[in-house]
Design goal:
With about 150 residues, the chain is mainly alpha-helical. The protein is about 60% helix and about 10% strand. It has a 3-stranded antiparallel sheet. It starts with 17 loop residues before the first helix and ends in a 14-residue tail after the last helix.
Length: about 150
């Protein structure tokens, strides 16, 4: 089945395709992790940053703003001192997060198959490179056999 057969992707390969942009936001490095975390429960910013791990404050802020703009994440600022901001998934966000989570579960289940494929690829690549190297050096005369004043 081709992507174009799905009907919902008339120009999915276009750089400014709206579907592509939303897909990029949801499946970005931090977007995936934010969605999975928020699927569990709402988080305050600092809690979410710890939960996601490795994300800078700037990147988390940017990711949350992008997902909020897309209607995926809800930001609720509570008028208390100190200020409290909670992030949660919208209905649209929950649907996206469940799909992302399903993909995450698939990677867990199929990781061993991916590792086997990687090893096979790496072995074949090393074999092909060695064969190409051998073919290149096979016809180069050794310096000891080259006529005087020439070297291979």
């Amino acid at each position: 089945m081709k992507v174009s057969d799905l009907g919902a992707w008339p120009d999915a390969n276009g750089r400014m395709c709206p579907q592509r942009l939303v897909l990029e936001h949801i499946t970005s490095r931090w977007g995936v992790l934010v969605l999975i975390a928020l699927l569990e429960r709402p988080y305050r910013f600092s809690e979410l940053r710890r939960e996601v791990g490795g994300v800078s404050e700037k990147m988390l802020t940017q990711t949350l703003r992008t997902l909020e703009r897309d209607g995926i994440v809800h930001r609720e600022a509570k008028p208390v001192i100190p200020p409290r901001v909670d992030y949660s998934l919208t209905e649209l966000g929950r649907e996206a997060a469940e799909l992302v989570c399903a993909l995450g579960h698939w990677t867990e289940r199929r990781l061993s198959a991916v590792q086997v494929a990687r090893e096979a690829y790496d072995e074949q690549k090393a074999h092909d490179e060695q064969k190409a190297h051998d073919e290149r050096t096979e016809h180069v005369p050794h310096a000891a056999y080259a006529p005087r004043g020439q070297s291979g």
